[in-house]
Amino acid sequence: MKIRTVVWGENVHEQKNKIVADLYPKGMHTCIADALNKNDDIEATTATLQQPEHGLTQERLAKTDVLIWWGHAAHGDVSDAVVERVCEAVWSGMGLILLHSAHFSKPFKRLMGTPCNLTWREAGERERLWVTSRNHPITRDLPDHFELENEEMYGEPFGVPEPLETVFVSWFQGGEVFRSGLTYKRGAGNVFYFRPGHETYPTYHDGNVQTVLRNAVRWAHNPMTRLQDVNAAPNVPVETAPEKIEERGPKLHQAGEEGYR
Length: 261
Description:
Layout: E1 3-9, H1 13-16, H2 18-23, H3 28-36, E2 42-48, H4 58-62, E3 66-70, H5 80-92, E4 95-99, H6 106-112, E5 119-131, E6 145-155, E7 165-172, E8 177-186, E9 189-194, H7 207-220
Parallel strand pairs: 1-2, 1-3, 3-4, 4-9
Antiparallel strand pairs: 5-6, 5-7, 7-8, 8-9
Helix pairs in contact: 5-6
């Protein structure tokens, strides 16, 4: 079975900025999907902000193994209902990969529970990405480091929780450093943040970046059956307790009554 991947793109800069449109005439999301579809084990399709429900209906997410998210100029335009839907899919086992300025996206901030802030500079400087976990599946077929001649700088401190693993660290021409590849587990879902991808530079045409994305899709994929009712918080009857007990003391809730949320 192929890994069913949806590449979600904000698709705003491509419509408004000629530089971005020239670099990505079919959109960054399509460029990424086309690169992934060169692999026999991945089936990538796209979705954008402008589509009904942003192209992420409940039915589509149920059939998505891995979701890739790129956003920048319109984080606030993303429906809170869709954000909650995405997070529930992650908690139930869908993989999620967040790219570049998606550090400020609603799904990432919701899943991290932190400001996700950083320092930045748009100067087209060189970025050198160092592999910090040489045997990690996401670094497969990569050299110890690779460079992007032009990128936007992101600098520490990065306001995110401590990751499970730091897979890449970046150095920028101006001297700053940044944790550029971070893995997390949220519920049953694997989450990967990957820093490169400023829209005015040809980052997603780069072979090493495409290798990272291909590896990340495979890493994020959870082949197990999705969990159901991930928000459930059932009131467990006394008679179903693993050990026999008797009720005692005052109680607030009646048997079967839902708790407060």
